[in-house]
Specification:
14 strands, alpha+beta, 308 residues, 10 helices, 36% helix, six-stranded mixed β-sheet, Arc Repressor Mutant, subunit A
Length: 308
């Protein structure tokens, strides 16, 4: 295993500084397949509540290239904004399920089962503020053909579309939250990518769905999990998931601020008492969405009443 080249350390320091981050540490590590990796810890200069960002890159990956460095810089800039959230690892689904992403074993590795795919493992926890212990162990896969449209099969270039594919798979009821269990597959396929528009498309949403999403996000991530600390509304990852723009999300948040549901501060928002008063509504939506992810059995067949 070799240490990160000094030229790459310099490039990383510069990209992090432009994003408003500091490099806390650079260490040698290894991926889930045993290949050597470089683990990089970054944080805001203020060190907000101990929040930090971990990047894990292939040991031989050289990101200081004209076609790679700009996207790395963009990723770091977005992460710097997310680190201002009280729970940077958390997000919600369109169905109103609050999630905490963790234990992702970047970078991708080639499948050992013989399939022509790249795999990344991770875990998604139900983050509703309770102690249910429900989670999903993830095995997200990308075909070799699909990988050709990605600048690099590394965390900064793949994290957003992988996380959004997981959210979409939950929306479709194809991942079940359990207290234990095996890894569940999340195929990230070309159906999520428009070669014509050159962008990812996960879900077609309208203003009603986007508004419901924003209110759910602020309720859960700020009101329930974040002690009413504001959360970032104009997140490009959310915009990609909802197939909209950051400007449109801000527009909708501004409208709700005027309706007394959100307290808006620039691109960040916190819930008002009026929004928190709708707790029963948000929790009912959560339970309905969780129930949708559970396998549904034919009760007549279970009771032996079906004609065979």
């Amino acid at each position: 295993m070799t240490e990160l080249k000094s030229s790459l350390v310099t490039a990383l320091d510069e990209a992090a500084a432009k994003a408003g981050l500091t490099v806390v540490s650079v260490a040698q590590s290894s991926g889930s397949d045993g290949r050597p990796t470089t683990a990089i810890q970054l944080a805001l200069p203020s060190g907000d509540a101990g929040r930090s960002l971990k990047l894990e890159l292939s040991d031989t990956f050289e990101f200081d290239k004209p076609h790679l460095l700009p996207e790395l810089a963009s990723h770091l800039a977005e992460e710097a904004r997310r680190l201002r959230n009280p729970r940077p690892e958390c997000c919600v689904t369109l169905g109103g399920i609050p999630l905490a992403f963790g234990a992702f074993e970047w970078p991708f590795h080639r499948s050992t089962s013989g399939a022509d795919t790249y795999i990344v493992h991770g875990e998604v926890q139900l983050a509703d503020g309770g102690m249910r212990g429900l989670h999903v162990k993830i095995a997200a896969s990308v075909t070799v053909t699909f990988a050709e449209i990605i600048p690099a099969m590394e965390q900064p270039y793949s994290e957003s579309f992988v996380y959004n594919a997981i959210r979409k798979t939950i929306d479709m009821g194809q991942l079940e939250f359990l207290k234990s269990g095996n890894r569940q597959p999340v195929p990230v396929t070309t159906r999520y990518y428009s070669r014509w528009q050159k962008k990812f498309i996960f879900t077609e949403t309208d203003d009603k769905a986007r508004l419901a999403y924003l209110l759910s996000k602020v309720y859960w991530l700020s009101g329930v999990l974040g002690a009413n600390q504001p959360v970032w509304i104009a997140d490009p990852r959310d915009a990609q998931y909802l197939n909209t723009t950051e400007a449109d999300l801000l527009r909708m948040a501004g409208s709700e601020a005027g309706q007394g549901l959100l307290a808006l501060d620039g691109e960040f928002a916190a819930p008002t008492p009026a929004l928190m008063a709708r707790a029963d509504e948000f929790r009912a939506t959560l339970e309905a969405s969780l129930n949708f992810t559970k396998p549904q059995f034919n009760e007549s067949m279970r009771a032996g009443k079906a004609n065979m």
